[in-house]
Amino acid sequence: MKLSKTLLATSALTVAAAGAYAAGHGMADSMTLVSWGGAYQASQQNAYVAPYIEMHPDVSASWDESSAEAVAKLRAMNEAGNITWDLVDVVAADAIRLCDEGLAMEIDHDEMLAAAPDGTSASDDFGDLIVSDCYIPQIVYSTTFGYRTDMVPAGVEPPSDICSVFDLETYPGKRALEKRPINNMEWALLCDGVAKEDVYDVLETDEGQDQALAKLDTIKDQVIWWNAGADTPQLLADGEVFMGSTYNGRLFSAIVEQGQPIGMMWDAQVFDLDGWIIPTGLPEDRLARVMDFVRFATDTQRLADQAKFISYGPARASSAPLVSTHAELGIEMAPHMPTDPNNAKNTFLYNYEFWADYRDDIDAKFQAWLAQ
Amino acid sequence: MTDAATEPDKIAGPTPDNALRAADKAETGPVLAADGTPLKRSLNRALRAQKIRALMLIAPLLLFVLISFIAPIGDMLFRSVENQIVRDTIPRTVAALTDYDAAAGGLPREEVFEAAYYDVFYAAERKEHTRLGSRLNYEQTGASSLFRKSGRGIEDIGEVYQDQFEDLNGDWDEARPWAELMGDPDWIAAQEAWDGNGTMPAFELRSDIAEILPRTAESYRIFARFMQNEEGDSPLEEEPWSVVHTALYQDVSAGDVSGYSGPRADMLQAAAALVASPDFETISFRDGFADIDEDWVEPEVWQTIKTYSPDYTSGYFLNAVDMQKTPEGPMLRDEDERIYGLLFQRTMFMSLVITLSCIMLGYPIAYLLSNLPSSKANLLMILVLLPFWTSLLVRTSAWKVMLQQQGVINDTLVWLGLVADDARLTMINNQFGTIVAMTHILLPFMILPMYSVMSTIPQSYVRAAKSLGATNWTTFWRVYFPQSVPGIGAGSILVFILSIGYYITPEIVGGTSGIFISNRIAYHISSSLNWGLAAALGTILLVVVLVLYWAYDRIVGIDNVKLGG
Predict the structure, then answer these.
(1) According to a count of CB atoms within 10 Å of the terminal CB, is the N or C end of chain B lower?
(2) What is the residue-wise DSSP string for A74-97?
(3) Is the pTM of this model over 0.90?
(4) Within 13 Å of residue B458, how many CA atoms lie on the same side as its CB?
(5) What is the ipTM of this complex?
(6) Which chain A residues are Cβ-neighbours of B507 within 8 angstroms?
(7) With an 8 Å Cβ cutoff, are B145 and A353 in contact?
């Protein structure tokens, strides 16, 4: 009796599943997206996922906030032969590594992604931002400094130069820097008299690395090292530090949405990218669904829509003119974009190739230096 | 019976003992059970059944522990020596490097470059070259981009030959003529007849072709099998990779193909004539690699490959103790790159301090708890357990709010005038912060075993000591304390071992001086992906803990540890 019931239930389920499968034209009806959580993931939910679900009411999307450990988890999933993620949001350096390790699928950008409204092909529209064959860029963000406006010493101009981070005499107070060599080493060299175009040539050498660490040494006892992007806005809000580096979107929300007395110092902001990768080895129906979603979510209008919710610049050139106002506050978003001409007077381009090679080596030195 | 000669089994002859024994046996025989089988056997059977039943009862647990605990840990720790990726990815190069003397430096022979050409080409087609690059980049900075670049540039070498053959005869650019030259006619027929369902008929070389064109045959076979298995394409419709053209050039220039008379013989003879002509352009593999990247003609990359070519390596373990595997043997790293020794020491030191502070704070609480009436003790117990029910992150972040410079404690001290506003204490993002936060978090693990041991100490002992004239201190120190030591032991082991592996709390409040070795392990697992090094560090940590446990057993005795009454 019991057995026959189970059998009945199983066959009913099979029939139902087969029906659902047929209805989706060979596409799975659920997706697992991986992102960073917080305001950034919310902007993706609002700009990409909500409109997509509206068009396909039978599809469901769930989020996994694991982007920070995406590379390790994908490798583990790959080794276990069970990929549970469909689309993963990662920074460019991680995308390059995932592509190197064969964990991310190669993308034919022109074929898989929508062209711009004026007919420009996707690969031209994204241009140089396609830093890896596996990468579909979404946004340009920058790592830059914010400072407490009320802690600027009396009679002194607010800091507007990256080297004021290293100038403890004019701008006394603690600094918050990320607990890794990337960006910090470059800033240190820039402020130690190395020309912008020579930074990576100098950093290749042992002497250059020592020079950068020596410069960082001058402020070492005044630095609080952060691990998560949310640390610096919190430290600034608490008055724990005078200035600190973090992602520009975090500072935007602290300044504009929470009204904290924080100023932006855009000088020598370091551009980086965030975008999607598709894991290798997805079953066909899930792959079909994810391709359909990605095509929609990375078209010109969708990328521009994301900027309504967060101050990161869209990765497509054709999206830039479509950037409008903040969805809730109604303010113009363009002046808060890292790519705005006023903010981008002096920018620094993060060298992915260099860090892919030197990351392990310099990180060992950096951590040894930190631990001393 | 100390005399060896009188032992019955030593002397087989007729001794009085043996005679008695024999008589005994003959008289009674083996003792029988009720059913007639010897008692010994039936007893054994009953015991065996019992043992099997017991084993079956614990089997689920045993399997669970084996599959979900021992096996994954073993697998992870095994990565600390595993290094097959080098041989798997570039097997020909590894074989060719056998007689290369890495310690002497210098560049390897042309044959090694030749082997590397084929290896890197095939690896690039399988998209495995970048994995090897990432692996070798842990040992030699720059290997990552060198391999990535070479995957793209390796085509250039073969294209030199491919272009010339194609200029001679367009058929060299076609799939079909190649397949006829290399493939078994039966296979071609089967492949043509294949209707797209099921598996493709596996490619077979023509019987004699491997003797005439050995390299080309191997290359083409690899190409054809790859097309069939990986791409699902028919080799009859895919033009071969440029590596096959390189192999053809090598074969034709090395051997005589004039005797060949199979399919496409004229095409092959013409190619041989072209190769023999003085106008034919060639490139040495070494120069080809130099064109891809100058680093290929530096000894370092070859030394690294040679040093890391065995299937198992001690390299990760050497890295984990601040050393380096070099052609000359293990060497200490540069002073500014040594970090793990320092972190191991720091981990031990801080774990000890945390354990000691837990003892100091936990002992009075446990004492109080065990000496209060149970209604009050239960209430206090809830206070001890309360932190257990709060998220670890919340507790750690709360300490941040308390300890930071603009935090509660500093604000209070400044308000009281004990500390000047511009000289606020630094109590977080250093060792102090880690020790405070972790002592708080691990305190219940100390209090609970202490409490359960203390609550079993009979009050009558204390009363007896006092009635015999002992002072309060003597009573405590001579009578009560020795009986509570097993609780301290159990609590200390728990707290020490837990704190040695902690990483979330140090990561948040530890700054630079308060982090543990586990923070570096976490970094290598999740960020740098150097799982081999993470496994080596983990293995060392595990061994250290086991050694300490052993030492504890020798000094204090593990029987002296009690988790309860």
Answers:
(1) N
(2) HHHHHHHT----SEEEEEHHHHHH
(3) no
(4) 5
(5) 0.85
(6) 227
(7) yes
